[in-house]
Amino acid sequence: MNRNVRRAAITTAAISTALALTACGTGTGGGQTADPEDFVSGGTFAMSLNEDPGDLSPLTGVNLAQRALVPFGYESLAYITPEGETVPWMAESWEESGTSITYTLKEGLTCADGTEFTAETAAANFAYQANPDNGTFWYGSNVTEDMTASADGDELTIESATNNPFLLQSTGAVEMVCQAGLDDPSSLADTTNGTALFELTDVAAGSEYTYTKRDGYTWGPEDVTSETEGLPDEIVARVVTDEATSANLLLSGELNAAPIIGPDRERVEAAGLQSVGILNPIGQMLFNEREDRPTSDVRVRQALTLALDREAIGELVTDGNYQESVSLVNKIPLTCVSDGPMWELPDTDVDAAAELLDEAGYPADADGDRALTIRFLYDGATPTHGAAAEEVQAEWAELGITTELVAEDPTGWSTDLYQTYDWDTGFIQLAPSSPVVLSLFFLGATSEDGGYNFMSVTNPEYNALAEQAFTAPDADAACELWLQAEKELIDRVDTFPLADTESPTWLNGATLEMPGSIAPTTIRMLG
């Protein structure tokens, strides 16, 4: 069994974070290759963001666009190659056991503010991340409260009170913040203070974010330095909310990279541009299980999903690029995916759906109306979501269900998912690289209590299996338990992975690796 490791993203329409854990399988994504003779050093690498990132803090920021920018200012102890190999980055080597790992840091690490980055600073990072009061996204997945960190010279040792089969992969992926940033976390909202090859030098909120290459950088993965051939002098992330505009700018050469998944994808592809693809669970549905919502009843959730024609909706939501889901883990490195799934989605059965709604207390009246209204959220910025949501509405109407469609923007997502909780279901995606990351949303505290379980799911069978998996003796045993746990989520319809697709980031005039998000040390400008 091949357990590659690669950084991946965890996203909903309202939240996202880049995380990495161990793999049990392979998947889409990776990098582009080009002849080094074509590399041209200097210039500007321009990329698009489909919304403004807002707060840039790597400690607490959760916006998708914000997380896409984190790698440009911050680095990790280890890096994962497109082939899934864990290689040194800030650390030159490591030794691990089931309950501890010791990293030896590279010499000469310096921060954007000119200070030295030491093992003591690295230990302070893990102490900060392990404190639940700080509310970091890493807490509970890659860093847990039972971890302690200490420094001795250039060595950082992290110890876990329980056995952790993925200790290297989890701790090695955490981005390191320099001491001044830890001392004043609020300062990271609009500045960067890490050891990265690039540092933030200009912010035009809502428009552009400029990162400039640092001199004297010598510790990149696979021997990348400030002098490596083909690196740009600066990176500019431009906020472009309209996908057609992004396509126009990409084709004209004004952008070097842009994610394009809607109708404009065809003309970009026709122009002969290359892309880097990542798996996208674009049609995944989550459910609000709070007591005051109809979707708190498992029979309602079952009925809603049994009534759907998955393929018809899947073709719409993916713009004809429909793939059946095979796992709730859908970002590289697709941890624990190759032996699964243990679950199977049911076939469409409208009659069974009607019976379940009758049992749940929503019988049809003489006109066929069930007096059941479902508030369905979808991303207004995702071109294919609207048509697919209308198809869902039409199919549920055949059962006598009224569906209120809500096209969300970033403010709306935040309000509905995390403040008013006024929603029932919708196209709301999670994109974890491992089941450990996935567990944050189903096992953890609800958002009312400061956690990430914004659906208010309580699944005792899943919880019990997840707790066992956390301390499994090895990765094989852990994956077996996680696959069983995932089946419990599907069987109870805590989520419904209706359709996946591959989302490409298109390139013009540059090559790069994109294991979840763009890896800045891999950008090479082309002549």
TrEMBL record:
Protein name, please?
Answer: ABC transporter substrate-binding protein
Give the GO molecular function terms. Answer: peptide transmembrane transporter activity
Q: Return the Gene3D superfamilies for the record.
A: Dipeptide-binding Protein, Domain 3, Periplasmic binding protein-like II
| UniProt keywords, alphabetically | Signal
According to the entry, every stretch annotated as the Solute-binding protein family domain falls at 86-435
GO biological process: what's one of them? peptide transport
Q: Which CDD domains match?
A: PBP2_NikA_DppA_OppA_like (cd00995)
Query: Signal peptide location in the record?
Result: 1-23
